Amino acid sequence: MIVIGLSSGTSADGIDVAAARFALDGDLVLLTPLGHRTEPYPGDLREAIRAALPPARTTMETVCRLDTRIGRAFADAALRAVGELAGGRADLVASHGQTLFHWADQRADHGAGQRADGATVHGTLQLGQPAWIAEATGLPVVSDLRTADVAAGGQGAPLASLLDALLLGARPEPTAALNLGGIANVTVLRGEQPPLAFDTGPGNALLDAAARRVSGGRADFDADGAIARSGRPDPALLEHLLAEPYYRLPPPRTTGLELFGPGYLDAALHATGTPDDADLMATLVELTAATVADALRPHGVAEVLASGGGTRNPVLMERLAARLSPARLAAFDTLGLDSDAKEAYLFALIGFLTWHGLPGSVPSCTGARRGPVAGRLTPGASPLRLPEPASTVPARLRVGARDLRAPAPHHPE
């Protein structure tokens, strides 16, 4: 099958699109990349999404408008991907949509030295009405990819652990896959032990909020880390931020802008004072590096493979490498998948598995009682004709050589 995967992360910068050819051979999934691109949201839609994110209040009218507009934007992106990445032919679209809310109760003891006692996710909401995608492409669409895991008692995240576990599970030494999106998450592969995955805390979310704060609205204000490099972490602010109880929650745990949004940064600055711009950015870089490294240290990983937008910040990568040492820090790209498109390929993989009646999450990573089949199906132009469910649950994933007939990856300025 050829599957188009669509995703937009918590930064709401645009739509990541990937096309891949999949084949199933016993317990092996073969993924052959056909290409990927990023489609920017129209500026007014991006700002409307950000204005509706927690802790903002919104209306059902706004939710309806966003569901429709995001769905139409995803439909346009999928249609272009079929023509430009998949050679005019695809079999399925898998759309993650845009997360607007992740309903998580995070409980932690605030007493010194006391351990947190867990977290519960009650629901999750991704917008982007799939009917628009099905109508535009004529293809069936798998969407709402997190809720089945939540209903089975899981966190609904990090779903990237599925791809990580299949791709890296056979490695002889403990290895971690790190995604530096708005929220940073890790998957830890530990040989014969079940994989483990969780959100470590903010990746780029607080850095983006600070950039908008000091630049008058530009999230890319310090995209290359130059301002952070010129500053020094503010000790009082960093100590205050590191005292956050979330970091003591045992995995599996998940979080989002509901906790680490702009209001969180405002409250911290109110409590400790606001350093100058360079020191503020340096402090938040150090916070991300420290919380990722602290979360991975108990697992003794030998290598960390990083992906996501944060990998383009050289100062963040330098601080991560220093904090993670002696573990090696490398790019996820070395595995054959462009790190910028990892999540789009992930959702294409989940769509493929759903089509074949296979689980779309890893219980040991999300905390679910079982690994349910993910998502719901929207028919395309033809009636749905699902194949017989596969009889073997995949245990391995191999990335084939990128199809050279496919267009080169597209990264708009």
Structure summary:
The chain has 413 residues and is α/β, with parallel strands linked by helices.
What does this structure look like?
With 413 residues, this protein is an alpha/beta fold. Helix content is 34%, strand content 24%. The protein contains 13 helices and 13 strands. The strands form 2 sheets. Strands 1, 2, 3, 4, 5, 6, 12 and 13 form an 8-stranded mixed sheet that branches. A 5-stranded mixed sheet has the order 9-8-7-10-11, with helices on both faces. Helix 11 links the parallel strand 10 (303-307) and strand 11. Helix 8 packs parallel to helix 10 (277-296) and helix 10 (277-296) runs parallel beside helix 11 (314-324). It is globular and about 60 Å long.
Secondary structure layout:
Blueprint: E1 2-8, E2 14-25, E3 28-40, H1 43-52, H2 60-84, E4 92-107, E5 118-127, H3 130-137, E6 141-143, H4 147-151, H5 160-168, E7 175-180, E8 183-190, E9 193-202, H6 205-215, H7 226-229, H8 235-242, H9 262-272, H10 277-296, E10 303-307, H11 314-324, E11 328-331, H12 342-355, H13 363-366, E12 376-378, E13 396-399
Parallel strand pairs: 1-4, 3-13, 4-6, 7-10, 10-11
Antiparallel strand pairs: 1-2, 2-3, 4-5, 6-12, 7-8, 8-9
Helix pairs in contact: 1-2, 2-3, 6-10, 8-9, 8-10, 10-11
